[in-house]
Amino acid sequence: MAAVAALAATGAGGAGAGSPSPPPAASARRDFYWLRSFVAGGIAGCCAKTTIAPLDRVKILLQAHNRHYKHLGVFSTLCAVPKKEGFLGLYKGNGAMMIRIFPYGAIQFMSFDHYKKIITTKLGISGHVHRLMAGSMAGMTAVICTYPLDMVRVRLAFQVKGEHTYTGIVHAFKTIYAKEGGFLGFYRGLMPTIIGMAPYAGVSFFTFGTLKSVGLTHAPTLLGRPSSDNPNVLVLKTHINLLCGGIAGAIAQTISYPLDVTRRRMQLGTVLPDSEKCLTMWKTLKYIYGHHGIRRGLYRGLSLNYIRCVPSQAVAFTTYELMKQFLHLN
Predict the structure, then answer these.
(1) How far is CA 271 from the centre of its chain?
(2) I need a surface site. Which of 22, 95, 295, 301 has the fewest CB within 10 A?
(3) Could you count the other beta carbons within 10 Å of the beta carbon of residue 120?
């Protein structure tokens, strides 16, 4: 991003031989840059996921054809869950989600900036392509680091009141470890997740970064404003940030959605009666397509995903941009 490039340029300019030592405050800001970047990404992820937590729960219920709600649509399920499980039923699994999403968002945003810098300086790849590559690598890194937490969150979100297999996060961890092959049990469905995350994160960061770059280049006064922590750096206005983030999320979700459905089915594993038919990515894709087709199988719940991914990505990118200013990352 332009802000990161400006920061890198400033740091490089002040590191030459004979340069005066930076003041203590500037040195501290540089020393804790990655920590502050980690915190900014984590907060951005938490804000984004909390915004759409009810929609996330409904998506999981529909994707895996939960027997209590499989005959319902998106909005009817949103109404049925509070009636059956209370209002907090819409947020079931959100505690595990927050435990997972803080490090996920932190690792993804922080590693994106890091990978982008490496790709540009070490490989000599610039332009818009480096955003696509860095975004894909950042998404895969975040997934691998936090996948067990996502597995537990999905299992908790799939439960219906009165039919609990797991009593909480810790119990879910213990049960999966004991009954599903130890540590490897937490990585069931990892392959379709990584394959799906590469284009999703890559396209998402690519689209947002490109829209931001083009907007600030061709209409800086209309779309941009000086950063609050560095007047020399232009940032998008908040409502433009939200718009660009939403567009990025919608495009990315359309491309990667069938693999997201496959991942959920594999993650739920022994919870589903047909789990033996969903042991590998290819078998799961074949099973979903054969039994439910494209629209009601591979793309089941996509309308909900459009509704959830637009505000989610909009809030994520916008919060991260605001946190960068608040934590003096520009």
Answers:
(1) 25
(2) 295
(3) 16
Q: What whole-number distance in Å separates Cα of residue 91 and Cα of residue 95?
A: 8
Mean predicted confidence (pLDDT) in 155-161 = 79
Q: Which helix (H) or strand (E) holds 224?
A: strand 224-226
DSSP 30-58: HHTHHHHHHHHHHHHHHHHHHHTHHHHHH
| Encoded amino acid at 311, one letter | P
Q: Return the SS3 of 166.
A: coil
Residues 94 and 78: beta-carbon distance below 8 Å: no
- For 78-114, what is each residue's pLDDT tens digit? 888 888 888 888 888 777 778 888 999 999 999 998 9
**Range list of β-strands (E), 174-268:** 224-226, 234-236
Instruction: Kindly tell me the sign of the dihedral angle through the C-alpha atoms of 185, 69, 157, 299.
Output: positive
User: Which letter does DSSP use for residue 70 in this model?
Assistant: T
DSSP symbol at 298:
I
Place of tokens 């300086």: 121
Give the bridge partners for 26, in sequence order. Answer: none
Residue listed under structure tokens 């359309």: 254
pTM of the model: 0.71
291 token code pair = 């039994």
In whole angstroms, how far apart are CA 76 and each of 133, 159, 290? 39, 18, 26
Taking the C-alpha atoms of residue 221 and residue 288, their distance in angstroms, rounded to an integer, is 49
Q: Do residues 329 and 37 make contact, with C-beta atoms less than 8 angstroms apart?
A: yes
How far is the C-alpha of 291 from the C-alpha of 302, rounded, in Å?
18
CA angle (211 as vertex; 205, 212 as ends), nearest 5? 85
